[in-house]
Structure formats: C-alpha cells, structure tokens
Amino acid sequence: MELYILTIQKLPNLKLEPILIKMFKSLIFLFLPVFLFAGNITTIHLGGGNQISGAVIKETGDYLFIDIGHDVLKVPSHLIIHKSEEQKQKINPIAHEIYFEKPNAPTLPLNQLLEILGQSVVKITTPSGLGSGFIIHETGYIITNNHVIAGETKIAVTLFPKDDSLRKQFDNVQIMSSSPSIDLALLKIKNHSDYKFKPLPIGRTDSLKQGQAVFAIGSPLGLERSVSEGIISLKNRLIYGRLYIQTTTQINPGNSGGPLFNSRGEVIGVNNMKIIAMGAEGLGFSIPARVLKNFLKNREVYALDPTNPNSGFRYINPPK
Fold first, then answer.
1. 104, part of any domain
2. Which residue has the higher pLDDT, 319 or 25?
3. How confident is the model at residue 189, as a pLDDT?
4. What is the CATH number of the domain that holds 9?
5. Does residue 270 carry a pLDDT above 60?
6. What is the average pLDDT score of the chain?
7. Catalytic: 256?
8. Are 126 and 152 in contact (CB under 8 A)?
9. What residues make up the domain containing 122?
10. Distance CA 316, CA 305 (A)
11. Which of 183, 219, 226, 228 is catalytic?
C-alpha cells in the first residue's frame, strides 16, 4: 500500500475528508494496474527537445497527469509544445514458436532414420541420476521429463554427433519451464559458442494407428544411443487422469524424457514410464506430442522462477 500512498501525495490540492481519502486510496489500488497496462501511449513534447511517454490519466486546464510506469508525473500544460499518441503494442509471448513440424517427411528405413536423428537425442546427467532428452530448436532448447531434473541445480547434457568417437558435453544448462503435473520440462543450453544444434520435428498424434511401428532412442541405464523398436498398443491410454501412448517399445530407467518416433522421423511422444510387475513385459508409456505442443505454446505459464522458494530447487547441505 505504501507505493500508492506516495502516489496520492503527489496529486495536487487534495482536500478530502479522511474517510473519502481512504476510499480514494482503495480506488487507486484497484485501478492503477489498469492505467499501467491499458490504453494508448502518449508522447508529450517539451521545450529543448525533451519528451515524456506514458499513459495519460487525467488532463485539466492547468496540468496533465501521465503515468510513466513507476510514477505519475504532473506536467504544467503551458510547458507542453504538442502531444502525439500511438497505439500500445500487444506483446504475444508465443509469437515465435521454438519447435517445428515436418508433415510431409518421407517414410525411411530404420537404419537411415537413426543416422539422421541420433545426433539430436541427448543424455541428461544430474547429481542424483540420469535421463534422456531431445533438441527442439537450433539455439539449444531441449525437452525432457520433469522428474529427470526436478529439484536439481546442476544439469549436464551430452550430445553424440555422427562420428561415434566424438561427443560434446554442456554443463551450463538452465531450466526454463517445468510442470510436475504433466511431467515435462524445457531446458536451455547456455554459452554454447554458437554451436548449431539439429532440432527434431514434432509430429501429430491424431493420425496415429493401433499397431503402427514406432521406435525410441535414449540412454537406458546410461547406455547412450540405445535403440528399441515396437508398435503402438493403444494411442489413448488413461492412467491416473493422464492420457498416454501405450507402446511395446522397451522403455527403461534412463529412457525417461527421450523421444518416441514414427517411421517418418517425427517425435510423436516423450517417453515417460513403464509398468513393472511379475510377468509384465512391453508396457511402456509416452506423453503424446499434442500435450508437448500445448506445454511449449504455454511455456510462460510454466516458467521456472529460481527466486521463488517453491521453485522445486533442492540445495545440498554443506559439509560439516
């Protein structure tokens, strides 16, 4: 409330009874956010080439009150040479998507697809475990499961280019967005010296068919670049309120967060879990690509704020 009280003190010649002043303060508290985020931007041109830009709150014969964002200025009318008004731009945080689709990609043999796609699947290492992920943008954006990186402050990503003798590891990885409810996380490799990553196309799941061939690439138990093949058992399996792609493709610890591909090399799912029970085999589950796209389109909602005490970061106790 102190901010709004200071603002009120700058308004001229307020001669109101105490109860009216309290009401006025409440109105300022309620409507000041509207002044900050709505309306047009007015530029006031003063003498000497000086100018002020902001939202005009009120104009009288002697003064003009303009909101400049962190304060409200009272400008004498006789100092104003002229005013110009421009429509405030609307900012769309998802105007530039960080993933792409390739709907007309041809069907290729598995060995050819592995040569193309393998270099875009990564191994993710944290102090408490490991998982998989995949690149979705050439600037270093990566998708994985939230449970792979939940509570971690130190994350490393390893890439495997076509040459098997080479690998690249990046230690400066930041969590951009995460959602425990849908178990997805968006990571960003920082300071990668303009390294051009090779992103994977995200496919559509509405055209999936039961029995359709699919395959996974990941790092089960740390065995990077491992490939497993199977079929779609059911494209919409409801488990604990979530819809999954059920597949016979082998998914083991370390595969979490890796991609599930169709025969055109499109990511149709994010490998998430398997059912382990006596006599149970081939019961793997992946998060559908449509859920992934929705997560990316609304990534600002899931943005991680490291200053929030509920951010999920886990801090290791100092040694005694």
1. no
2. 319
3. 94
4. 2.30.30.100
5. yes
6. 80
7. yes
8. yes
9. 110-297
10. 19
11. 183
